[in-house]
Design goal:
Blueprint: H1 2-15, H2 25-35, E1 44-51, H3 54-61, H4 63-79, E2 87-92, E3 95-101, H5 105-126, E4 134-140, H6 141-144, H7 147-158, E5 168-169, H8 172-193, E6 197-206, E7 211-223, E8 227-229, H9 231-241, H10 244-259
Parallel strand pairs: 4-5
Antiparallel strand pairs: 1-3, 1-4, 2-3, 6-7, 7-8
Length: 260
């Protein structure tokens, strides 16, 4: 009996976030498995919330107050869970997950907005000019087919969220965008080797002499299968994943070849 209790205690520690006392990521997944089955996927949405510029809180007030802020946010979210089976978790740092029982996306948006307002209402009582904002993404379980997949898709959707929509939902459009990103990432290395990226020189004209005096080197991508891929599409992707540094070096070398 003592060994059983000790194992239960260790399991509870493994599933619990020491800062908030609530579920961590593993605990959230385990609880979701107990609440959800394949028959009621369409009733639930996974929501991911990331505190925007949380590092400023730590840098300005210190880590201790930063931890208090995270505890406050967690417990405020926990108070706003209304239906049986709904869950909240702090998965790491300033990242939170919710399991909400709402079949309509508009109801999810409405509840997230109320949660954000409740957090900031409490904050403004003490700090009148201060507020917290979140990047918010969501994914319905019937679209994802499972909780871990829905969590990852909600994180991705949060990167596309804006203040007008409160919460960005993972959908077919985002799925196509993600597939396109993965495709371009796959093509990048071979395109560098094959020199599919071309240098285009845009002249700069001297106003005094009315003639071209310099040129700006611009990149264009001509892929043998994909055709023309425009900078407005590939540059933000490579800036996000760090490949832009390799592309910069490639362009520098290509311009040096032109100068020679």
């Amino acid at each position: 009996r003592h060994l059983l209790k000790e194992n239960q205690r260790k399991e509870q520690l493994f599933l619990t976030d020491p800062l908030t006392g609530g579920w961590n990521r593993e605990g959230f997944l385990k609880q979701c498995e107990e609440v959800i089955d394949n028959r009621n996927f369409k009733e639930y949405a996974i929501v991911y919330l990331n505190v925007i510029d949380f590092r400023i809180i730590n840098e300005s007030w210190g880590e201790e107050d930063g931890n208090r802020t995270l505890q406050f946010i967690f417990h405020q979210f926990q108070k706003d869970l209304k239906q049986k089976g709904e869950l909240v978790s702090r998965s790491s740092m300033d990242h939170f997950f919710l399991l909400l029982k709402e079949e309509d996306d508009r109801d999810v948006n409405r509840r997230i907005l109320k949660m954000k307002e409740a957090v900031n209402e409490r904050i403004r009582c003490k700090f009148s000019e201060y507020s917290i904002d979140f990047a918010v993404g969501a994914c319905r379980l019937d679209i994802a087919g499972g909780v871990p997949t829905a969590m990852n898709k909600a994180i991705y959707a949060s990167k596309l969220s804006d203040t007008d929509n409160v919460c960005s939902f993972y959908n077919a459009g985002i799925a196509n965008m993600l597939e396109r990103e993965e495709r371009l990432n796959t093509l990048f290395e071979d395109s560098v080797k094959n020199r599919d990226f071309k240098v285009y020189l845009q002249p700069k004209v001297s106003p005094s002499e009315t003639r071209a005096c310099q040129a700006e080197a611009l990149v264009r991508w001509f892929h043998p299968q994909e055709g023309v891929i425009y900078p407005s599409e590939f540059i933000p992707i490579f800036e996000k994943n760090g490949k832009i540094c390799s592309l910069d070096l490639y362009m520098f070398e290509e311009v040096c070849r032109l100068i020679d």
